[in-house]
Amino acid sequence: MAQEEIIFPNNIRNIRLAAGMKMTELARQTHLSLSAVSKIEKGVRRLNQKQLLNICRILGCKLSDIFIKESDDVADAWQSEIRRRLTDNEGSGLKVFGSGLRKIRQKSGKTIAQAAKDAGMTLSVYHKIEVGQREVYENEIEPLASSFGYNVSDMFEEIVKLYKSGELNKQISKVKERVKSVLEPGSPMSGIDMHGSLYGAKLYDSARKKLVPVFGTPSGKSIAFKKSDKTMIVAPMSLEGRPGIYAVVPNVKRMGSMMPENCYMFADAQIPATPGDMAVCIDTDFDTLDTDTDVTAHVAMVRVDTRGKVYGHVMGPDEKITAPTMHRVVMIVME
Fold first, then answer.
1. How many Å apart are CA 56 and CA 52, to the nearest integer?
2. pLDDT in tens, 59-94
3. d(Cα 317, Cα 228) in Å, to the nearest integer?
4. Structural domain spans, the chain
5. Is 1.10.10.10 the CATH classification of the domain at 1-204?
6. What does each C-alpha distance from 239 to 37, 153, 193, 266 come to in angstroms?
7. What's the predicted TM-score (pTM) here?
8. How many other CB atoms sit within 10 Å of the CB of residue 203?
9. Which class in CATH covers the domain with range 210-334?
10. Parallel, antiparallel, or unpaired for β 211-219 and 245-248?
11. Are 185 and 202 in contact (CB under 8 A)?
């Protein structure tokens, strides 16, 4: 029997166990089935960014804790498992059958979605069969064959003919090379294609480009600020991958009617604010902060007094603020 490819190697199970949480509880809080959570922990089911962030919130961990990276001790074990499963699936003939089925589908002019529907399968199941990641059960063979106008015997005969002619070699090689590329740290495909069938050891780096850390949240009359990536949110598309971007949740009660409820402000640590800008004003030199230090911040308009000194003006309480660090706010997004 073939085995599903590990597409998302992760540390979720270890983190959950360390937190003393049962799998049933994680399933309840994530609104996922127990089967789905089990597959996630085994690495055979994908997660989108929002689901990942939700799991981080529930488990109280950072995004970087979730991923197995090349530097982790378990990375070698994962790569060995991928190689073993690749060999097992090739030896079982599923790569040949899947590639033959794909060639038949292409010749019929059907899309993968049409073929899945005609065979009475979900798109995910049908796709896994085509790429040789899933075994085919006896009751699925006839619907597959009839969906392309074949009986079972003729379909197998056609796949044998395609294989002997060498027409399947290119497709089988593509699948093999895709798997191998994930195992090679220097490969440009390793963990880069977020929409592909496999997730690599470099997935964290790709996912991180689409997320930004939340450094500040309201606290009393100010903002509690910590330079930590424990809390992350999905970045607006125009800010994806842009270095220096972070978010704060403004203290809207402090700012009066100037700011809407439930919003995030995105600031750029690489752009010092100038008069006329809205800025995140931090009471400490940002560059000297470490991930464990809590400091105070405010959101203010940047102004300059008659003596040429730059300061922050909090409009609600009409308060003047001086701060060694002022980062320009580059975007405000409603939650």
1. 6
2. 988 887 887 765 666 666 666 666 666 565 555 577
3. 29
4. 1-204, 210-334
5. no
6. 31, 55, 19, 9
7. 0.55
8. 23
9. mainly beta
10. parallel
11. yes
